[in-house]
What does this fold into?
Amino acid sequence: MYLDFVKSLFFLMHEHNLGYIYKGIFTPEVTDTVLYLTEHKLEKQEESIKLKKRVYNILVESLQNVIRHQAKDHKRNPFHDSLFLIQKIENRYVITTGNIIKTENVSKLQSLLDKINELSKEELKEFYLKILSEGEFSEKGGAGLGLLDIARKSGNKLLYKFVPFSQNYSYFYLCIIPILEDSSHCSDYKNDFKFVELIHSILNKEDISIINNGPFNQENLLIFLNSLEGQMIGNVGYKKKVYYIVIEMIQNIIKHGFIPENYDQSAVPGIFLLGQINNKYRILTGNFIENKDLYTLKEKIDKVNNMNSDQLNNYFNDFLFDFANENYKKAGLGLIDIRIKSQHKIDYDILPINENYSFLTLQSLVNID
Amino acid sequence: MKALYIKAQEDTPEVILDKDKKIFEISERSLPENAISFYEPIINWLQEYKNSPLDETIFKFKLEYFNTASAKQIAKILLELQEIAKVSKVKILWYYHKDDTDMLTSGLRFSKLLNIPFEFIEI
It folds into this structure.
């Protein structure tokens, strides 16, 4: 039952309409990736160009802000990782970032945020120009300016929260909701960051760095694959291995995942997670599956898990050259291939939803070096 | 015989099957959702080519990635080439990135299961 956190995350993310989460060290490559993914999402949903541009600008600024202020540990500490989430609530994009901050700096930052939030649009502009000319607040290359700029561009108050987590460090969550000037009123969206903290704690505990909350079709898979490049560590060989497995696991969802009635029928609901455990990559997927298919699936996974490498190769070859009753949905090779390439057993967890379908989680491990 | 040219898409490979120019090549990525329908014209082309092949057919696989659904279609292509090898010379050139042991393994698997000469080329 140790994989049940995947189901919890799936439903939490659905409840809050969260599409994508990244947790880790932010680099310019990561920024590019997040921008690339969001751009595709924005394009698809045909937002007004103005809002699109605004969201995009704020994303750039807020991600750079995280890069400026994130922890610069020599050794990776998952609890010090920075965080990025994007969700859509009632036609508004809600961007949340997180990074650690020295507790001694909290009060200074808090008063700056409060000051920014009190200022009108005109006052913000004046304050911005004043800081620009005086050059204060700039000990880290424009601490105040970054936030001020975000506030100006978003046209909205900055929501924030500080959570102390060790003797010297606190975690700083910042939530930005870009609105258009012609929107009739400021956002009444309240964010107590409770669900963000909850998700964050699961990510820390399970050492998960990327979540893509579907839904999946071939198009989304390709966009997502392109985005993975900049976000992985390890040598090219292992990255490729992870790629192969990601493709098979997501195509498994696309081909076999079940779409319950209350979900959008145009793509298959599912969740993808990439993380680490004991110096291995952990690649996880979660999706719905009809109960009538459970027995066959379990049987197949147990079978490939208990085979040695010769048996696996023979089993793979049998399917490879079996063209009888060919059906594009059932090559039959996916799970065997995952098992062969990963060189680890495939972990699975099945949690019943109702009498018709269940939630299936699969985990595949790949040694990092 | 009319040549078959298919331009690469994001999830389907570039295909060149040109008897006059003696080019037989599949390259880039192959991860389509429906591999059967993508590879159908390629299999059909080879079945026609089988009737009057060149004295020597050098078939290049220069794939960066392929999914398991494509693996099965590649198996089909290789079976056709095995047939052609009964009446003429056939050689497979299997390219792989030096860090991509999985691509090499896939090629070795095919070469073991089939009766055609394979040459493995590291890039």
Notes: Chain A touches chain B at residues 218, 222, 235-237, 240-241, 243-244, 247-248, 251, 254-255, 313, 316-317, 319-321, 323, 326, 328, 331, 333-334, 336-337, 341 (CB under 8 Å). The beta strands of chain A are 18-24, 82-89, 92-102, 159-164, 169-176, 208-212, 270-277, 280-290, 347-352, 357-367. The longest strand of chain A covers residues 92-102. The longest helix of chain A spans residues 49-69.
